[in-house]
Amino acid sequence: MAEWEIRPAAAADVEAVAEVRAVVMRPDLERLGRYDGHLVRQRLRDAFAPEHTWVIESDGAVAGCVALRPAEDAHWLEHFYLAPHLQGGGIGTAVLRELLDRCDRDGLPVRLNVLQGSPARRLYERLGFTLETEDPVDVFMRRDPATAAPPRLVL
C-alpha cells in the first residue's frame, strides 16, 4: 500500500479536491455521455463543506477526499474520490472502514449514491452496502449498522 494520510479539510482545499474529482469521474461520466469539465468541478465547489470532509494525501499532495454529511436519519457518504494511480491498493477500503466504524458507534445507517457502472460499487458492496434504488444514472445504496460485519478480533 502506498504511503498516505488523512486530515480534516480546509476551505483552501476546494480547488485541489475539485481537480481530483474531475480526473476520477471522467471515465464514468464520459461513458454515460455526461462529462463536462467545468460542471464536474463546479458541482464539487458548490457542495464542498470542509467541516464534514477529510482530505487524503499521498507523497505530500492531495490524492483524494471523502465527506460524511450528517442528516436526520443517516450519514451521507459523499465526494469519495481517490486518484486513479492509488486505487486498488487498499487505501479506499482503509478510509471507508474507519468512517463506517464511526457511523456504527452512532447507530445510524450510511447512505450514498454511485454512478451506474462505476467500479466503486464493488467496494461499497464488500463493505456492506446494499441497493436501495436506482435510475439510469445513479445507484442509491445503504448500509445499516446492524448488518455491518462484526468487529475483527485481534489475538
Structural class: alpha+beta
So what's the oligomer here? single chain
| Termini gap | 23 Å
Rg measurement, Å: 15 Å
Indicate the proportion of strand residues: 25-35%
How is the largest sheet built, in terms of strand order? 1-2-3-4-5-7-6
Characterize the biggest β-sheet: 7 strands, mixed
Number of helices: 4
* Helicity level: 25-40%
Following the backbone from N to C, one meets helices and strands in this order, namely: EHHEEEHEHEE
Any low-confidence stretches, pLDDT <50, length ≥5?
Answer: none
Integer average pLDDT: 91
Give the CA-based shape: globular
In total, the number of strands is 7
Keywords: Transferase
Pfam family, one: Acetyltransf_1
Protein name: GNAT superfamily N-acetyltransferase
Topology of helices and strands:
Blueprint (H helix, E strand, L loop, with lengths): L4 E4 L5 H18 L5 H11 L5 E6 L2 E10 L4 E8 L8 H16 L3 E6 L4 H7 L3 E5 L3 E6 L12
Parallel strand pairs: 4-5
Antiparallel strand pairs: 1-2, 2-3, 3-4, 5-7, 6-7
Helix pairs in contact: 1-2
